[in-house]
Amino acid sequence: METGASIIVTEAEFDDGLRAIAQQTYRRIQTAKPGASLLLEKHPGYTYHLPLIEHLMPGGRYIHMIRDGRDTALSMLSARARVGFGAASMEGAAREWADSVRLSRAHGKRVDASRFMEMRYEDLLADSAGGLRKLLAFCELDPDDAWCDRIAAEHHFDRKQVSSGDASHNALREKPGAIWQARMGLRQRYVFDRVAGGWLRATGYGTDGWWCRSPLDGALMALYPLQLRFRRALAHSLKLLRAPAFKACAYK
What is the pTM of this model? Predict the structure, then answer.
């Protein structure tokens, strides 16, 4: 039995309404740049809505900019501390990175190969002008060499950092892996591997046991799962003890 809005509006009509809102929004954006021929959307949250985007706006091109998940996780935690945005724990950051990679690659298999491109952040950083040429060519735009060289030079993070990125990481960005190697502690490495280690290896960023730098690391973390279960059990017990129903029963 149909209930709610489906009684009044069909699914096709609802989709047409959403599509009209999106198109109206894009038209207003284009008004500000009348000479533009391409609209770029780059919010990371869109990763969770790729099938809907394809359904409402078919034919788009998708660029999956992938980065070492360990560096990404540290960036999320830094953003949380500085501007209140992003995951609040290493576990949450690792899960968000793994989910993003999984969903992006799954979408890449659903659409035509000519409309999906994956590029590593580290490769773009190492050769920004060359990376821009590849991206422009993928979008069927003219990869003008002089323009790419100029943009790459003008927007290097040493000269112009317009986002809310952590500038304290800049000195480490040139060397792949330098950020997490310098800033990620043992427990953070261990937690990240437990949550997202499979995808780290699947994307070629990590190998088995990467988090353990010495036999001592392994020994120190051997009891961590047990400690974690104990803390969770203790927290659950304390929550029950504080519950009104438990107190009423205890003092009846």
Answer: 0.82
